[in-house]
Structure formats: C-alpha cells, structure tokens
Amino acid sequence: MTTLGPLLALALLAAPKPPATQASQLVDATLVVPNLALDIRYATENNFTGQKLYDAARCLLRPQVAQSLAKAQAWLEPKGYRLKVFDCYRPFSVQKRMWEVKPVPGLVAPPSKGGSNHNRGAAVDLTLISRDGSEVEMPTDYDDFSKAARMSSTLPSKAAQRHRAMLQEAMVRAGFKPLYMEWWHFDADNPLQYKTLDLPLSQK
Fold this sequence. Notes:
about 200 residues; alpha+beta; Muramoyl-pentapeptide Carboxypeptidase, domain 2; two-stranded antiparallel sheet
C-alpha cells in the first residue's frame, strides 16, 4: 500500500472543489416554505400565451430566495393568509417564446437585454389566499396587462387594494421588491448576483 508524499497531499487539500451544477443552485420552494400553494400557470394553457410552456408544475428558486419567501409566509399566517405562487424560476428558452408572443418591454422582459429575474430563479409571481385555501379578492387575474394590474392602481375594489397592500407588505418585509406594472411580481434582493439559467423544471 502506498502513501501520498507530503507535497502531493497538501496540493490535493488545497485544490478547489468542483463547482456546483446549475441544477443544484435551485431548490423546490415547497420544501422550504410550509403550506405554500401552487398554481403554476405556464405548466398549463391557462396563461397569456395560450400554450403549455413548462414540462413540470414546480416552484424552483435560489435557496436564499426560498428562505425569504418562507419569511413572508410566516408573517402572513397569523393574519389568516398564506401564499399561492403562479411562477418562480423560468427557463431562458421559455422567456424567448414569451417574447415572440408579446414583444412589449415592460410587460415581457426582452431576452436580448438579459431576460427576466425569473430566469435567474430570483423572482416570484404570487397572490394571497386564505389560510384554509380559499381565494381572496385581488385587483386582477394573473398576467392581466390592464392599468388595474399596476401596483398603485386605485381601480380595484377597496377589498382588493387591502389584500394587495398586505401581500406587498409581507414581501417587502421579507426583502423582496415589488414591480410597478404587476401587483403579483416581486424580485429578490440583488437579483443580478445570480446567473441566467436554462434548465427544464423537471430536471431538478
């Protein structure tokens, strides 16, 4: 049996570890956020494209982003509410397909300019539901491109505005930033620290 020389042993200890795979950079948010509800619209035809774009109905996020989402959920539950997500990580190839359907900056992030923070696993689209899973009134349906969908719109009912404000407070307290055009969209803190990914949702 041979033994390693001292110099070789030190070199092996100092050698950098292989980088993590891209898939391992994402986690299933349902394993991190208790009682998180899913309605992943792009895994169905019930979305603005009318096409099924995802190969699995899953909410994958960067680990730190999932932890922040858990904080928002924890703040809401004592108040009788919880979160339901419409979209989390989105493959970059899907972003290109969305742009082909609706090439409108401000509504769909242009792939030529880096795409969406969804492509980085650093954004989430979501809504409030009651703790027992019942729907609550919100300003509009998901992916509504009308003025009523804007974060500060006064067009929705008072109840919808209250629920929108509660969702926003929960997410901002957890470190997310709202998007002016869409009441349901929130970006993680410093999303550009993450690289764009193009992995199928079923891969992880």
